[in-house]
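[agent] plan:
  1. take the single chain provided in the ticket
  2. run structure prediction with default settings
  3. attach structure tokens to the ticket
  4. add a short note for the reviewer (M.T.)
[agent] executing step 1
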Amino acid sequence: MTEPISPEPVREWKPEYTPAYVSNGIIGLRLCPIPPLGGVATVNGFVKMDEATGLEAYGRAPFPLAGDMRVNRTVVTQCPDRVVFREQRMDFASGELHTRFDFDGDGARVELSLITFCSRNRPTIAVQKATIRVDRDCELEITAGVSREGVNGYWAEPPMCPSHPPGPLDCLMLWKSAGDMGSLGLAYGTELLGTDQVYRRFNEGKDGPTSTSYVFHAEAGREYRLHHYASMVPDVWHSRPQHQAARLLTAAFVRGCEALRADNRAAWAELWRSRVQLVGAPERWQRMADAALFYLNSSAHPSSPASTHMFGLSFWPDYHYYRGHVMWDVETFCVPPLILIHPDAARALLRYRSSRLSGAVANAEARGYTGAQYPWESSPRHGHESAPVETTHSFNEEHVSMDVALAMARFVHATGDLEFAETCAWPVMAAVARWLDSRIERTPRGCEMRGVNGIAETKTTVNNSAFVNMSAVLALRETVSLGRDLGKRIVESWKALADALVLPIDPDTKVIRNHDGHDPAELKGETPEGAAALFPLEFDVDAETERRTLEFHLRSADKYVGSPMLSALLGVYAARLGDRQRAAELFEKGYAQFVIEPFAMTTEFSPVVYPDLPRPVPFTANLGGFLTSCLYGLTGLKLHAGDPAAWCKRPITMPQDWEGIRVDRIWTRGRPASLTAMHGTPRARIEEW
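[agent] step 2 finished; step 3 output follows
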């Protein structure tokens, strides 16, 4: 296995750059180019009341790795003009962010190097290692702690800073979010290495930062190191989360900074054994593939209590980030790559849906249906519908239930996990089937789903959306099949419904249209929903229908490309028609143009097509869509209950200048295997180790 290609170091920070994102899927950090000058934190499962909508949303947390420094009489945060940025680089191989800057203090110059990471082995732990050197002797004060600046909420209890001699725990705290919707336990510990002649004090602030300061005489040429450990525990994990955070912090402190770094590097090395290698492709494409895999893995963890959202654990105050709600994008674009490369993380994301089944049942009952209808925007804590009331189209966005059911089925196909099938997949899939049974209308045409919204989100509804109806057919058939395998009682109408659902296939042209009466000139009519039924849904049709459908929707691709989600799939549609040049062009416009400097993060909308829109990052639906295109679309891999060696049946066509795709390790039925797809071969190969 070769190491991933990390972004080039940033040595000049430009105003248009977006701050770095460091995460392990439980803790999410965004850090300024000079970390002491600010940062943003979120924690998986920690929620608040959104001030703008009054809805449950993920909560911004106090920043756990806050710091400051005083050189004689000058302070970094008070004199930012004296700070000289030197370099910041993201190391994809280890998940570490490295930052260097200088500070021209009062009578001395300080060189400071920071290493920041969120531990994959200990998911509640974030660590920052600071290395400090001065060019002249001076009085140096280094401060590290937790900052609540810019965060709505309050300390529910006064911070507790033990009075015993320096040890693992500096302070533990209990934070309450806005609207009292959630609680978060925080604990931090620090240690200074390089001198024993130091004055150490706690700075306890009910409304301000809580921190620890080290004051000492710094000598020129000598190296000093400060290790700052933090633990963050949401109340979904513990009734007294601050005490649990303190316990976990203590264990991490005892393990030590360098051992934690080594453990974290080893965990990342294990993940990179499933690196998606674009054989023969220009290096820039391999860089983008590495970045996509890095940010997807950064945003998902086997311990995730509340799935992930469309930007992982990322937040910055310039955008709403969809309030951290869990949407269909996760199951459709993020789960498929994880099923193959990190199935334990995929299981955690799907477990969120099974554990919130009661919310989906309540949503269906409130609308007069039986079974389970998953919400369009699912709240992290309760799984309730949390779309803003002014988002009227959300009431008719119904395909999310089938997206969840299909993700469950495909996870079972890939892993062979019968316990998951019994306890998680079957209850969800059967409940979605019951909902479909009550939702589908019986008409003279057969069975219809009328008054829905498909992928193209508009304020008007349509009848018989291709993506909605074809996902319903697949979900019903998968449910019947799984039920029989598990020995469950099958409702006979489910198979009949799947066979009778009206599909918007034009009988004259054999094209899968987006919906009844679809016109590409209508509002968002260029959205390739009919093509999306073929991939990523993988709805089976005859070869002529597939060809004509792809040709039809690609005629509108130049108008659509630049929009979120399906743009990253357009290259697959061209490749399946054998047009290598068009495939390369559409991957360029549909994905490469979404990736922005300096850290190769993916935006929601293409900045080339939509230069005036915000650039929130990393948009997991787009990067997950690209990875899904690489792992499934271009390889022809289709998960089913049969032998994994038979999952790939399509002839392989790669984009221009790509020779193939190889993954040294994917997971099939709990066993490692390789995946190889080379241009011009009859099919891709899956070979067990």
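[agent] step 4 note for reviewer: The first helix runs from residue 241 to 255.
[agent] ticket updated
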